[in-house]
Amino acid sequence: MFIPDIYKNENQEDIHAFLRENSFGILINQTEGRLTATHIPLELDTNIKGNLILQGHLSRENPQWKAFSENDEILAIFSGPHSYISSSWYDHENVPTWNYIAVHVYGKIKIIEGEAVIASLKKLVDKYEIAS
């Protein structure tokens, strides 16, 4: 993603807070030679080694998950507030633009099974049930 230097934020605490507040992302990978995207909640968490990870869930009916065994490279995109900025708002000649906040996370996916799936789903559901 192209980010002009003036808008770039590399503060990891800010990025982590953004991911926690805007956890409904787009998970993208290559499936059968084509890019595939699924909109799902992806929760920022810490694994047993202390590394930051994203956790989410895909249905087994979704063909996207099958491709992870062939290619584990993924891109997750998270979006926040955005708005059109009219050139009429400037006190000098300028062009309109669109301001937005987004984070792209590149990584490798790991499929979990058995009790780990149940624990992950429970944690995910509990988070959103509390907020509902």
Spatial arrangement of strands, main beta sheet: 2-1-5-6
CATH architectural category: Roll
The CATH topology label is Pnp Oxidase, Chain A
Distance between the termini: 33 Å
CATH C-level category: Mainly Beta
CATH superfamily: Electron Transport, Fmn-binding Protein, Chain A
The radius of gyration computed from the alpha-carbon positions, rounded to a whole number of angstroms, is 18 Å
Would you tell me the structural class of the helices and strands?
alpha+beta
What is the tally of helical segments?
A: 2
Order of helices and strands: HEEEEEEH
Q: Portion of residues in helices?
A: 10-25%
Residue-averaged pLDDT: 93
Major sheet characteristics: 4 strands, antiparallel
- Unreliably modeled segments: none
* Total number of domains: 1
Instruction: Estimate the strand proportion.
Output: 35-45%
How many beta-strand runs?
A: 6
The global form is globular
Organism: Flavobacterium frigoris
Protein name: Transcriptional regulator
Pfam families: FMN_bind_2
List its traits.
132 residues; 4-stranded antiparallel sheet; 2 helices; Pnp Oxidase, Chain A; alpha+beta
